[in-house]
Amino acid sequence: MATNLLYFHSILRYFILLFMLMVIVQSLVGMLNKGSFKKINKTAALVMMIMCDVQLLLGLAVYLLNGWGANMAKPGAMADKYSRFFGMEHPLMMIIALVLVHMAYSVAKRNMDSDRKFKRMFWFTLIALFLVLSRIPWPGEAVVGRPFLPKMGAIKGQTIRINTPVSVNRS
């Protein structure tokens, strides 16, 4: 079950990246053209936020089902790059990005001039995008890299651990 959740989690990232880019482009065009904020702008931000919320739920399920919380409580877990990445760095950065996405959508709901809405949505979403891109386990990354699509196998003979945290024993 955890493996299937991980596959959905891996695939959903592309839709999130697409909607983040869409919101960024819409906001940039709105800023440059001094356009008015339309319902389509708010809807794109809403869909982006909902997908990020679903992604968080999938990620939390994978995190808990695979025992990352218990693994991170063990002494020395932070010394292992794989455990540190999937047990701490990836979830923390994604939660910060999720907060920024929620801030972007909250701006879309506010009663303020269009230029301010576009600017704030642009910056919140752009920073969230950079955080997400920095902590996705891209193929080719040493130790934590995963294929672009699930079930594609290892890259260049690399062994990929999908759902097993490293056991850290200090005797």
Helical content stands at 55-70%
Mean pLDDT: 86
- Sheet having the most strands: none
Which spans have pLDDT < 50 for at least 5 consecutive residues?
A: 153-160
Number of helices: 5
Task: Give the N-terminus to C-terminus distance in angstroms.
Answer: 33 Å
Number of strands: 0
Which structural class fits the helix and strand makeup?
mainly alpha
Amount of beta strand: under 5%
Number of structural domains:
1
Shape: elongated
> Helix and strand succession?
HHHHH
* Gyration radius from CA atoms, angstroms: 18 Å
Q: Care to describe what's here?
A:
By secondary structure, the chain is an all-alpha fold. It has one domain (2-135). The protein is 67% helix and 0% strand. The chain has helices at residues 2-33, 39-65, 68-72, 81-109, 114-135. Helix 1 (2-33) runs antiparallel to helix 2. The longest helix is centred in the N-terminal third of the chain and has 32 residues, at 2-33. It is elongated, with a radius of gyration of 18 Å. The two termini are 33 Å apart. The relative contact order is 0.18. Mean pLDDT is 86; it is low at 153-160.
